[in-house]
Design brief:
The chain is mainly alpha-helical and 347 residues long. Helices cover 75% and strands 1% of the residues. 41% of the residues are buried.
Length: 347
């Protein structure tokens, strides 16, 4: 217990240690909080998309960037969380009893919990696969869930879609809820990756065999990363369902969400917390500007830019910034959390 309290104290000191970064974060959050009240709804929708991609990017990065497990099925948890959230606020349209109807916040948390539990249930099976086989297995999982929901029209609406009733919640309130969830997601992610869990995930990412020989249980930490990342993706899906008010299996379980989440991480910088945040803003902004000026060529230009980024800036925007400033302290774990050989062996 004392060790946990000491670790939490180290985390807080480290997170607040860079006052300039904390000040920038606070100003950015406050600026985002004013958006739905000073802009038109379509522009609020653009910034809402940025927040969703931040959650998706950060959550995927825990699994892929830190634990080294390249999951292509992240969208499965996003889509499943979206539908669970929709069923909880609008149960009768799916034939569920009205008694389970829940407030938006409960529905979003429900989507996150169910998505996390789904990951923990299938994790021991799917982690029998490694490398490319694991990536293909997760991709198949997303395809299976999409197929089931598409065929079960009574609960998903099928190709006609599922209309979500968010009750009395206005879009401004849903935007602020999404902003709050994004902030919590980033803080939780930072805590995880700078804790002993994060150190174990990095060790598995670098060399699973060597990590195992040091007493680290690879399956345990892969499941932790998979469960946390998937529940965050489910929460992002729940927020998306409540904000847009409409779901379609081909949309929320579409491969484009997975590709765009990967692009966000690649552009921003894999294996960092700040990277997906920068990548989400850059990607959505780029997509919007190119859509206005290049119309039908926007997707081709985006693809070209991504290739150029991967060739000339493999560490993404965050890597470029840190190489110029020399500041890499954010991603370093607090020194007090570095486990001793004996502590590692107990894992």
């Amino acid at each position: 217990m004392a060790g946990s309290e000491h670790e939490r104290g180290s985390f807080i000191r480290t997170m607040l240690g860079n006052r300039r970064r904390v000040a920038i974060a606070i100003v950015t959050v406050l600026a985002f909080a004013t958006i739905p009240f000073v802009t038109e709804r379509w522009l609020t929708q653009v910034f809402f998309t940025v927040l969703v991609f931040v959650i998706l990017g950060v959550s995927w990065d825990i699994i892929g960037g830190y634990a080294g497990q390249i999951s292509l099925g992240h969208v499965a948890f996003f889509g499943f969380g979206a539908y669970v959230s929709a069923w909880l606020t609008t149960p009768t349209r799916a034939g569920f009893p009205e008694s389970i109807q829940s407030p938006v916040i409960v529905a979003v948390l429900g989507g996150a919990i169910v998505a996390g539990l789904l990951a923990l249930v299938i994790g021991p099976v799917i982690f029998r696969l490694t490398g490319h086989y694991f990536a293909i297995g997760t991709l198949a999982l997303a395809a299976i869930i999409e197929l089931i929901l598409s065929n079960e029209r009574s609960v998903s609406g099928g190709s006609s879609g599922y209309f979500v009733d968010s009750g009395s919640a206005e879009y401004q309130q849903l935007f602020l809820l999404t902003l709050a969830v994004t902030v919590v997601t980033v803080i939780v992610s930072y805590y995880v990756v700078t804790s002993r869990w994060g150190l174990a995930m990095r060790a598995i990412h670098d060399d699973e065999t060597a990590a195992s020989s040091l007493g680290i249980n690879p399956l345990k930490y892969k499941l932790i990363a998979f469960g946390i990342g998937s529940s965050m993706a489910g929460m992002a899906g729940g927020l998306y369902a409540q904000y847009t008010g409409y779901l379609n299996p081909a949309d929320v379980l579409g491969l484009h969400w997975m590709v765009e989440a990967l692009v966000v991480v690649v552009l921003g910088g894999m294996g960092t917390i700040t990277g997906p945040i920068l990548g989400a803003g850059l990607f959505v902004g780029l997509d919007w500007i190119l859509g206005e000026v290049a119309s039908g060529y926007s997707t081709a230009i985006e693809g070209l830019l991504i290739i150029l980024f991967m060739i000339y800036m493999p560490k993404g925007i965050y890597g470029l910034i840190t190489s110029r400033t020399g500041d890499t302290s954010e991603e370093d774990p607090p020194s007090e959390t570095v486990p001793t050989p004996d502590e590692s062996a107990t894992d």
